[in-house]
Amino acid sequence: xxxxxxxxxxxxxxxxxxxxxxxxxxxxxxxxxxxxxxxxxxxxxxxxxxxxxxxxxxxxxxxxxxxxxxxxxxxxxxxxxxxxxxxxxxxxxxxxxxxxxxxxxxxxxxxxxxxxxxxxxxxxxxxxxxxxxxxxxxxxxxxxxxxxxxxxxxxxxxxxxxxxxxxx
Length: 168
Known about the structure:
Layout: H1 2-28, E1 32-38, E2 56-60, H2 67-83, H3 88-93, H4 95-100, E3 107-118, E4 121-131, E5 135-136, E6 140-147, E7 150-158, E8 164-165
Parallel strand pairs: 2-3
Antiparallel strand pairs: 1-7, 3-4, 4-6, 5-8, 6-7
């Protein structure tokens, strides 16, 4: 009986994921938002009452970063983690998790995917995924400008890979 209930629950979850994934693809094709904002002195724009066990934003450098690149990325990652800036695009992009699955997002995990040097700084791209009670391939790419010790949020874009990942 337990196996039957478990199987039915998984089937329902898959059905919800499949029906909402097509709708999300239509909405997110070409979805890019760009609104530059200096985040160096910002406070998190997340309602911490909404997620009682809010874990913040944890950012790590690229896996293959070495030497000076690693040191630079560690400093940027630490600053992003400390600032805990959550762009509106990220909140909207992952809203399906709390709205459709009724699973609270407890925080965010990010990994720097590029830190391209420019005059007086760098363009930083961070891949961000939610910390929730589910696994998902869905993520956003967030772009920041680092100049003279200040981080500025530039833009975000998302993927159309919405859905739950199951593990056996």
